Amino acid sequence: MNVIDRYLYPRVDPARIVSVILWPISILMIFHRSVFLAVNGARTDDFTTVYNASLNFLNRNPVYAENYTTVDPHYLYPPSGTLLMGPLAILNPQDSRWLFIAVSVVVLILCAYLLVRMFGYRADSWVFPAVLFFFFATETVANTLIFTNFNAFVLLGMLAFLMLMRGRYDLWAGVAIGLTLAVKPVLAPLLLLPLLQLRWKVLFTAIGIPVVLNIAAWPLIVDSKDFISRTVPYLMDTRDYYNSSISGNGLYFGIDTWLIWVLRIAFAVMAVFSLWFLYRYYSQTDELLWLATSSGILLGTLFLVGSLGQGYYSMLLFPMLMTVFLPGSVMRNWPAWLAVYGCMTFDVFVSVQWRPFARYLEYNKVPLGWSLLMITAFCVLLFRWLDIRAAHKDDGLPRGENTPVPA
User: Fold this and answer.
1) pTM score above 0.70
2) Which pLDDT belongs to residue 241?
3) Which residues contact 291 (CB under 8 A, 6 or more apart)?
4) Which residues contact 16 (CB under 8 A, 6 or more apart)?
5) Handedness of CA 383, 384, 386, 390 (dihedral sign)
6) Looking at 42-46, 102-106, 288-292, 389-393, which range is the least confident one?
7) Which of 46, 126, 341, 345 could make a disulfide contact with 149, Cβ separation 3.0–4.6 Å?
8) Is the pLDDT of residue 407 over 80?
9) What Cα–Cα distance (Å) separates residue 73 from each residue in 52, 68, 70, 176, 222?
10) What does the alpha-carbon distance between residue 204 and residue 171 come to, in Å, rounded to a whole number?
11) Shortest CA distance to 192 belongs to which of 161, 226, 221, 157?
12) Closest C-alpha among 187, 142, 180 to residue 44
């Protein structure tokens, strides 16, 4: 290359080109989702119910006196969550909501940064703007901001829990997940991970913090007993609206009860095998892959077989998706990413011409996405197990002996 060509065709690192493309797009997407969509809000409003409950708490009025026969968002946090969310009502509703949105955006950006660092990438690499772009392109992040709910903080607690677990900061890992459990118990299945490693310190703080906060909040709430007598039974029941779990979706479409139970049991069995395989072959050799994938399978299965699964819970699968950068990931195939599109797409399937089919897609894209993702992970791990068995048989080795896991 001569001197003139060096100026006409300057060499640029391809990674820098990706960053140059993604940074402005990601920043504008964050601006659009937060300043416009989130502030505009939607018919579904999770924040107002929490704000009103906080206001009632501060004014010593009943908190759990809602009418659960309506399809409006209901306040379902335990007394510990009421105690932690109480400061929201110090400001007026609009200022409080806008502040909550702003903090949620900061938390989501922090989550993207932590996810990038957890998988060994620098903040100035192309991976960071790529993760930000993916975050804010999804329905799960967009509707977390639009509906203005607590999920961003749950994701932060989950990432902190996983990173502190890897760093062997057991008590602090328990604090990170315990604070989320005090508000929303959605991460409770992840306590299986330290339990398998017999790391009791994690469980001590993870369980102790919500217990202590509930004890502290109980006498401060005038109708705290109603949480047990009214709210808990409602939480245990399966509702047929805004529910992407197998039971909720089946109830909405009138599926026979026996088939619903067959599907729930089948996904639970697949999860048991997947978790067993991951623990046996990866927990000692690749802890990051084990933690991130196992957490995704635990939570994805919970969303499907539990009584309530909502689409914006999908953000808790982000660590599992990020394993695509690791050898041995279950995400290195196209069905897995077809599943991700299903459970995370912000596309809305509405059609005048194809109304029945569009309605089916719109109501089923999330449960189908979760289902395909769990089935894909199970099949990938099952085939690896079969390959290992075949390799042992060909080599004349006992089946229990460790061998390299196929990538």
Assistant:
1) yes
2) 82
3) 162, 165, 166, 193, 319
4) 126
5) positive
6) 389-393
7) 46
8) no
9) 12, 9, 8, 27, 22
10) 7
11) 161
12) 142
- In-domain check, residue 183: no
Tell me: pLDDT of 12 over 90: no
pLDDT over 70 at 401, yes or no: no
Residue 118 lies in a domain: no
Q: In which residue are the tokens 């991700």 written?
A: 340
| Domain assignment of residue 303, given as a range | 239-407
> Quick one: tokens of 35?
């300043």
Lookup result for tokens 């490693």: 197
Largest CA distance in the chain: 81
pLDDT tens, position by position, 325-375: 999 999 999 999 999 999 999 999 989 999 999 999 999 999 999 999 999
Task: Find the distance separating the first CA and the last CA of the chain, reported in whole Å.
Answer: 41
Residue 119 carries which DSSP code?
T
Rg over alpha carbons for the chain, rounded to the nearest Å, is 23
Quick: pLDDT tens for 171-216: 999 999 999 999 999 999 999 999 999 999 999 999 999 999 999 9
DSSP of 164-200, one letter per residue? HHHTT-HHHHHHHHHHHHHH-GGGGGGGHHHHHTT-H
Comparing CA positions, the residue from 349, 343, 347 lying closest to residue 361 is 349
Structural domains counted in the chain: 1
Q: Which helix (H) or strand (E) holds 320?
A: helix 318-322
305 found inside a domain: yes
Residue 403 lies in a domain: yes
- The reported pLDDT for the residue numbered 230 is 92
Residues 83 and 217: beta-carbon distance below 8 Å:
yes
Q: In whole angstroms, give the CA distance from residue 212 to residue 220.
A: 13
Joined together, the tokens standing for residue 265 give 């049991």
